[in-house]
C-alpha cells in the first residue's frame, strides 16, 4: 500500500531540504542588504551604538525590522538548518537522490564560504557595530 492510499507514490517535498541548503545564501543576502540599508539611512557607518545614527522614528522601525529578519536568518542558518536537513533525510518523503543531496551540501558549503568572504571584506566600522 502506498503512502496516500490511492496506489500512487507519496509526493516528494524537496523544497524543505533545499531551504536548509540555501540558508547561508539567505543569510548572506540579508547581511548585505542590512548593511546597505544602514548605510543609506544613516549616511555613514555607525559607531558602536544605535544612538550615533540620526533618523526619524519610521526609519528606526524599518531598520529594527530588518535587524530582526537578519537575526532570524542567522539563527536558522547557524543553528537550525543543518540539524533540520539531517532530520529531513530520515523521512523517505523528503529524500532525493544522492546526487541532489550532494548538490545541496555543495550549495551550503559554498554559501558559508561566500558569507565568510563577505564578513571579511565588510567595512570595519560596520562589522564592529554589527558585532557590538
What report would you give on this structure?
By secondary structure, the protein is mostly helical. It has one domain. It is built from five helices and no strands. Helix 1 (14-21) packs parallel to helix 4 and helix 2 packs antiparallel against helix 3. The longest helix has 33 residues, at 57-89. The radius of gyration is 20 Å and the shape is elongated. The chain starts with 13 loop residues before the first helix and ends with a helix.
Please summarize the sheet with the most strands: none
Task: Compute the CA-based radius of gyration.
Answer: 20 Å
Tell me the total number of β-strands. 0
What structural category characterises the helix and strand content?
mainly alpha
What string, H for helix and E for strand, traces the elements in order?
HHHHH
- Which geometry do the CA atoms define? elongated
Count of structural domains: 1
What is the overall number of helices?
Answer: 5
* Average pLDDT score: 84
**Fraction in beta strands:** under 5%
Binned, the helix content reads over 70%
Distance from first to last alpha carbon = 57 Å
Q: List segments where confidence is low: pLDDT < 50 over at least 5 consecutive residues.
A: none
Amino acid at each position: 500500500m502506498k503512502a496516500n492510499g490511492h496506489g500512487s507514490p507519496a509526493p516528494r517535498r524537496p523544497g524543505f531540504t533545499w531551504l536548509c541548503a540555501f540558508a547561508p545564501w539567505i543569510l548572506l543576502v540579508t547581511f548585505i542588504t542590512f548593511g546597505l540599508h544602514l548605510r543609506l539611512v544613516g549616511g555613514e557607518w555607525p559607531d558602536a551604538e544605535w544612538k550615533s545614527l540620526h533618523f526619524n522614528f519610521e526609519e528606526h522601525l524599518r531598520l529594527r525590522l530588518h535587524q530582526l529578519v537578519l537575526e532570524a536568518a542567522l539563527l536558522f542558518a547557524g543553528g537550525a538548518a543543518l540539524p533540520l536537513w539531517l532530520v529531513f533525510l530520515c523521512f523517505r518523503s523528503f529524500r532525493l537522490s544522492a546526487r541532489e543531496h550532494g548538490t545541496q551540501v555543495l550549495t551550503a558549503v559554498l554559501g558559508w564560504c561566500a558569507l565568510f568572504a563577505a564578513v571579511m571584506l565588510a567595512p570595519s566600522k560596520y562589522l564592529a557595530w554589527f558585532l557590538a
